[in-house]
């Protein structure tokens, strides 16, 4: 995935080596960049040997996105309109597959091939990527697989939308019990044993619980309450004792801890005619109930305003970094290990800085004008010009602002001195 080659400086041989390397688990061969109209492309899938893979077409598309990216994913049960919501975020009636059959349309994780250029409220410009996920209750998949898909979507997202029908009741909370399983499938760091939900919460996306075909009046103690209040009331601990109560409270505690930044959006039934609901993607928005359209507008506004580029520490996610992070997580899953957030990000950060270093040394050597007279003043002039071009290339490609980047900046300066000598 990352083409890592040596520069001409022998000092690079003693530089820190990344623990991340192109994974043999993916067997990727890059496809040509996505051409033609924008469309869904497969990002992650489960092959016939029971291994997670990244699709080469998605890898090729993401490698081209060098600017910061924010990722919004929609997850939930099958056949409950996840793809419809994604299409509304795209501003189109079709795109991600919408169908009325009982079989799930989406397998694994799918990505919209064309990022949406967005500007957040604070002025940050970024590329918004939309992810569609397989239904977490797909009948032909195991519980472990569902948890892994769910966990991957959470790990990669800036905003995670959980889509479900109806209100938040005990059955709805039970279905979200995957959250309590995430602590068994993800770690924050390599040492220290299992990570708690609150530790994982430091890296979690904004969580949006989207309630479809919602019909309840939001009233508590004869007072109107907000959807956010409704969510918080549903997540309050249940009073009592016993195993059943403890299990219910474990789910509630996990959701609160894993998703400290959370919101709730109810959407009323879009149409009253049952037959029309089966072909919702074919009906123009102006035919839908005004209350539904208003709720959809509010959701879209929230998503676009609150989404930010995904970031861990000093590293902001770009397309190539998303590829590297995903590959690192999949490699861990395929090897029966637990994906580790900090180690995976640091490995990709180091791989990117290494690649930036190699590119910078190549540019220095090719930019040095050897046609000038071999006198110090002319050599220094050519050296300075080559250094400027080399540093510009390094700064454009390197990621992070921490110790990994500083190490490679130091190696590059050492390379410049030796090259001039």
TrEMBL record:
Any Pfam family the entry gives: GBP
Keyword check for Hydrolase: yes
Chain residue ranges for the region called Disordered: 1-34
Single GO term (MF): GTPase activity
Classification via Gene3D superfamilies: Guanylate-binding protein, C-terminal domain, P-loop containing nucleotide triphosphate hydrolases
Keyword GTP-binding listed: yes
Biased composition regions of type Basic and acidic residues, renumbered to the chain: 1-11
InterPro entries: G_GB1_RHD3_dom (IPR030386), Guanylate-bd/ATL_C (IPR003191), Guanylate-bd_C_sf (IPR036543), Guanylate-bd_N (IPR015894), P-loop_NTPase (IPR027417)
Biased composition range(s): Low complexity: 14-33
Keywords: GTP-binding, Hydrolase, Nucleotide-binding
Domain GB1/RHD3-type G: start-end pairs: 66-308
Transmembrane intervals: none
PANTHER family hit by this protein: GUANYLATE BINDING PROTEIN
Family of this protein: Belongs to the TRAFAC class dynamin-like GTPase superfamily. GB1/RHD3 GTPase family.
Name of the molecule in the record: GUANYLATE-BINDING PROTEIN 2-LIKE
